[in-house]
Design a protein that fits this description.
The chain is built from 18 helices and twelve strands. By secondary structure, the protein is an alpha/beta fold. α16 (297-303) links the parallel β10 (288-290) and β11.
Length: 370
């Protein structure tokens, strides 16, 4: 069982009653908590100024720079949480997998995984132990950011095993993840071995962020929407559960240190294009479920028996719409979100790079005043 330090925000109580944490417990704080996926970077001019001299993965692994980028949207927008600035391929990179983030394309892998031999090689060469030894830049950045944030929670994150595996099998981004889904069906044992390995990396990445000071985590399954419900349930969900177990067994010492008390680290799960998977995503054991813009929040809550706090789900396309249209859309999202036990306002996907930052600040202001 991993032990959290006495100065961790969940142990010393700094973030326990923050609106985000209350909502994740199923409570309804006095104001709706707000944060935005991909808020760290992308649309902010202060981010672009910093990134001008740094490649993406270099910025992710520079503790001071990663912490500063994490903090920028909290200062500018007044959001209720920071999300750690990193990338889902960082644990792969730190485990020794050769990957590059190509501008305009995304992650590109030098050696795609296409066979049982490829999986065996990866498991032997790119181990969870190797990742853990290389995680200090990530931990250092989280410690800096969590200290600066004070009572504002920091959300750690990782890519879900299926998304990591899909990238690795395809060798880069894909529209339909056909190679990955073919491997899943044609070589089920190879597939299970690949996902088990990816789950270990995702879990270690999440645990490092929590142990360093994150107060909650979000598991992103960017490509799970390409799966049927049965394929997700039978061939993917077990690996996601395994990844999340890494942050379920945390505790802190009490008194003389011989006894310990469990710490509940809230987990959010989000998968774009996953309206047909809501029940399956919730069933892996999460505290809140992110919903993309395609599924109204009240419909999502009804399908989940009104038992799961929801996050979402402003349509990113409306960030560039006239103010009256955006404000009407925001009011509708907040209204529909009242059916769930609690609601965290977010986008139904990430912030587009061309977004006017003042629009995000206005959304926060309106949501807090609603």
């Amino acid at each position: 069982m991993n032990i959290l330090h006495a100065s961790h925000p969940l142990v010393d109580g700094r973030t326990v009653d923050a609106p985000l944490l209350r909502a994740l417990r199923g409570d309804r704080p006095e104001r709706t908590p707000v944060w935005f996926m991909r808020q760290a970077g992308r649309s902010l001019p202060e981010y672009r100024a910093l990134r001008a001299a740094h490649r993406m993965l270099d910025a992710c692994l520079d503790p001071g720079l990663a912490a500063e980028i994490t903090l920028q949207p909290v200062r500018r927008h007044g959001v209720d949480a920071a999300v750690f600035f990193s990338d889902i391929v960082v644990p792969l990179r730190l485990a020794g997998v050769e990957v590059d983030l190509v501008p305009g394309r995304g992650p590109v892998f030098a050696r795609p995984i296409r066979s049982a031999a490829d999986v065996a090689r990866c498991r032997a060469e790119h181990t969870t132990a190797r990742l853990r030894e290389a995680l200090e830049p990530v931990s250092a950045a989280v410690r800096i950011a969590a200290h600066e944030l004070g009572t504002t929670p920091l959300i750690g994150f990782a890519g879900a095993p299926f998304t990591l595996a899909a990238y690795l099998v395809e060798g880069g981004p894909s529209r339909d993840h056909l190679r990955a889904r073919t491997l899943m069906h044609a070589e089920p044992e190879t597939w299970r071995s690949l996902l088990d390995w990816a789950a270990g990396l995702s879990g270690a990445f999440l645990a490092a962020q929590v142990e360093a000071g994150a107060s909650a985590v979000q598991l992103f399954d960017s490509w799970a929407g390409s799966l049927s419900a049965s394929d997700y349930r039978e061939r993917v969900a077990p690996a996601s559960r395994r990844a999340l177990r890494a942050v379920r067994g945390l505790s802190y010492p009490e008194g003389d240190g011989y006894a310990s008390r469990a710490v509940q680290v809230p987990v959010i799960h989000f998968a774009v294009g996953s309206g047909h998977l809501l029940e399956e995503l919730a069933a892996i054991g999460v505290d809140a479920l992110g919903v993309d813009w395609r599924t109204p929040l009240d419909d999502a809550s009804r399908r989940l028996d009104d038992a799961v706090p929801l996050q979402g789900n402003l349509d990113p396309a409306l960030l560039g719409a006239p103010a009256a249209l955006l404000e009407a859309h925001l009011a509708g999202v907040l209204r529909r979100g009242r059916r769930a036990p609690a609601h965290i306002l977010n986008l139904g996907h990430g912030v587009p790079p061309e977004t006017d930052p003042t629009v995000l600040s206005r959304i926060v202001e309106l949501a807090h005043g609603a």
